[in-house]
Amino acid sequence: MAVPSRRARIYSGTARNLARLAGVLRRGGLVAVPAETVYGLAADALDARACARIYRAKGRPATDPLIVHLAAADELETVAEGNPAARRLAAAFWPGPLTLVLPRRATVPALVSAGLPSVAVRVPAHRLFRRLLRLTGRPLAAPSANPFGYVSPTTAEHVRAGLGTRIGHILEGGPCAVGVESTIVDLRDPARPALLRPGAISRAQLEQVLGVRVADGGPVGSARRAQVAPGQLARHYSPRTPATLHARLDPAAAATGPADEAWLFLARPPGRARPNVRWLDARGDLRGAARRLFACLRELDAAGYRHLHLEAAPGEDGFALAINDRLRRAAAR
Fold first, then answer.
1. Using CA atoms, how far apart are residues 114 and 61, in angstroms rounded to an integer?
2. What is the CATH topology of the domain spanning 9-216?
3. Do residues 174 and 159 make contact, with C-beta atoms less than 8 angstroms apart?
4. pLDDT in tens, the chain (333 residues)
5. Which of 175, 218, 263, 300 is the most buried (most CB within 10 A)?
6. Residue 54 to residues 23, 40, 296: CA-CA distances in angstroms?
7. Other CB atoms within 10 Å distance of the CB of residue 13
8. Sheet holding 118-122: strands in order across?
């Protein structure tokens, strides 16, 4: 399939457009789709050639697996080997921003899972994505719809800015409600669940449902080695502008600092605002901060600053852990 020579078209979520885009996916094409987390670049998850187009369009290494999206939880066994722990989490959090890593069924191409015998699966909550899944009638593989390693997209225009000459179709679904990628839990051994990537579903919520401790997922991965799930690399979700992550930012330093550097606070700092001083949420609400995180990083990256100073969120679970995970990877070198 030829690479589009024009900028991608953005489609509204009408019944006619959804039917057209479902046809594109059934024929092995790519469609950028909205989710409650971030926008994804979707292809038929059971079609290896279609999934290879995702990797090419993003410039994504074959060692970084894709997440398979289903229309409903009762489809889980078509792509993965479930277990009681997986079914409890699915009942509690699907549709929603939770991905489960489980043993892979042979129906899923090895390419989707970086050659590993596992697969990452979730049921998204965004109504248009779910309608498209039902119309397509196939599970859809969909990593974030951006060049590999760059800041994730949370609007259709973000997708077009990054992939607009590499893909042809983007489904408009409005700004993403959550704003950070899904929580990923490794359940290959249900007796020893592990948190591989933090997100909107917190470790405490997972442990309450499972009744056991959820461990950390282990060391940071390498792009040279197959990963069991996406989002494991030390540097990821990254602006091109060099950045430093601080436990706290000093409002006085931001008020008098160099004009060619920018400061991104969690909450609005006191004093008169400068063009190079931004904040994620006026009151520091963590849900609001997560929703704005990637959009703010993109805005600052596009503004031409020499350096970005980023403020960590307080806390050790839930949205704080998710925000700090993305900021730490964005600032990594």
1. 9
2. DHBP synthase (3.90.870)
3. no
4. 444 447 899 999 999 999 999 999 999 999 999 999 999 999 999 999 999 999 999 999 999 999 999 999 999 999 999 999 999 999 999 999 999 999 999 999 999 999 999 999 999 999 999 999 999 999 999 999 999 999 999 999 999 999 999 999 999 999 999 999 999 999 999 999 999 999 999 999 999 999 999 999 866 767 788 999 999 999 999 999 999 999 999 999 999 999 999 999 999 999 888 999 999 999 999 999 999 999 999 999 999 999 999 999 999 889 999 999 999 999 998
5. 263
6. 17, 10, 26
7. 18
8. 9-11, 169-171, 31-33, 40-44, 140-141, 67-69, 118-122, 98-103, 183-186, 194-197, 215-216
Residues in the chain: 333
Q: State the Cα–Cα distance between residues 63 and 319, nearest whole angstrom.
A: 27
- What is the C-alpha to C-alpha distance for residues 274 and 255, in angstroms, rounded to an integer? 7
Beta bridge partners of 100: 121, 185
| Structure tokens that stand for 333 in this block | 């070198």
How many degrees, rounded to 5, is the angle at CA 320 between CA 236 and CA 240? 25
Q: Report residue 326 as tokens.
A: 């993305």
Q: How far apart are alpha carbons 233 and 212 in whole angstroms?
A: 27
- Quickly count: other Cβ atoms within 10 Å of residue 176's Cβ: 25
